[in-house]
Amino acid sequence: MDPARAGVLTVASEQYTPLDGLDDIPWAQLRHAYGKASDIPRRLRALASNWNMREQLDGIEGALFPLDGGICSASAPTVPYLIELVGTPKIRIRADVVEMLGRLVMRLNDRRWRSDPDAIACREALLSLHDKVIALAKERNANVRREALTLLWQYAALSPRAEEVEKALVARDAREKELTIRVKSRLEGALAGRTAVLRLAAVSDEPLRLANLMARRMLDRESVPAQELVDAALASNLPRGAYAAWSGNGRRLVQALCPDDDVTARMEIIRPLLVQGTGGVLAGALEAAGDVMAKSRSATRSLLPLLGQLLYNDDTQVRTLAADLLAAVGEAGIPYADRLAHLLGDGDQAVEEAATWALVRQGDERAVPSVLRAVKENGDKFGYYHASGFEPDLGDMAKECAPRYPERVVPVLHAVLEKCGPEPTSVQYQLWRALAACGPAGYGAEDALTLMLASKRPEPALMVFEGVGSAAAHLGPWIEALVRVVDDEWLALWAARVHCLVTGDKAVLREVLDGLGAPDDWRFAHAFVRSAALLDPAERAPVLARAEKWVRDNRDRWGMFGVPEIVVACGDTELTLAVLAHALDAPEYEPVILEALRAVAELGPPAKGLRPRVLALLERDERLTKPTGLRSIVLDDQISAAALDALNAIDPGPTSRR
Known about the structure:
Number of helices: 36
Oligomer: single chain
Number of strands: 2
């Protein structure tokens, strides 16, 4: 016998509860998240023996909680044994088992799974153990009693004997000595939607005032004004150690005071906390402000004055976060530019860098010296961590500054990039992009560019030449040489297009296009369109026809990036309107909406039929982009501006929406 297995059997012989009938269940025929449930008996016996408890419980937890949120067929037969373990005083991990069971019952209450056969079986198994479940309210161990609250209140939500459960919880509260347990009971009851918790909330003990208000507000938001709730949360006599909301020095306070994701409800809590909060409370409120700003346009407008005021706060972290949020809104933060400029000499590196980023996003020239210092240091990014996820990437900063102030930025970029090797780092690649964005003024660092052009990775050089145009005309032979030797059709077409841009000679581009067949994906169709724009009208038509055919043959790709630009260039108005309608209704990525709106603006009055769609995009408050951080604000703001431009192009004149 395997020695490890023998050890498990030895330990299992000392188990503190019998787990009767465990081997009578056909576990191999049941499933859990990882497959067959054959390992469940071994894990349960190990838990009953206090052997390797954490690993065994983690294994059971991982097995019973599928990532899709459902319920496994092995859950129902496992629950009675878990309850048996909880009722065995010598089991040392009982509180953890109860906590896991509480989360399982919350999942059983999820309406998505109520009619699922495995969930139904699991509920029935739990209901059959009613007396053992309700006995947890009287458990002597305070840790078990505390963790049992979630289980009991959630169980009451699914049990036909809910009144017995609630009566036991209310009776226990009157005798409970642990303040943390009394606080948690109110909050768990309200979270489960049980109005019986109002009997607990009627208790007038001052240490429970915040818990009572939180419970009442969760059950009926209008019954407790937000300001009253915030005042109670910040009261100096509050026993903060009894409230999980105050863990992390209050950083989680917003989430605790407003557990749902409703933007309006959150704003009612965030605004007073931004005014009254300090330390961790204020930092947490700023993080929560970023979350709602990423979801709601009006929330952003409402919070901007408060963010501007917090630039004066004594706490460096608060100043950093406030500047970071102002960076996310770009030009909307211009009213606070002078204060941000003052913070460039704050003395704290994080504050200075956040202020620099905000000013860069506003197009303010006062940020340029800080950006140039960072470019000279050639760091991967600025040195501070942003909870918002909108940290100032050096490449982004250079790309913002270079086209606006080329006379100041371009020489520094040249000096840095002249030392660039044939395979640039990620930040060097972004600096090359910044040069490309400057047009002819960006040309320079020629030795590094030609070295890169002859390397295995010529793409950055092509990008720069495409940006600077005729300023690189004398390097036409180098670019043509690349066209001749490269064995990648996509790269050859790109190089041929760049050769035409910098030299004005169309022969190489015509030759490459003639050698290619019909485009087989959107990248080639897009490249055909961009190449056709450089040809004479007579030569342009057949190239566009090949791109248009790809669009017609690939209707399922109409929501992809690049397709709106393709159809506008091809010139078939009926096809263009159909593609743009699809791109606005069902884009594969949010940037496609932006591209489609720009295409609508280019099309102008013929796109009048799309006006309702454009107007709907402009008037909605919920942001179009998924709230994956403050960068989503940037994209959504661009979409809003493009929607306004499109609307004005469709229907120009004094009646156009502004």
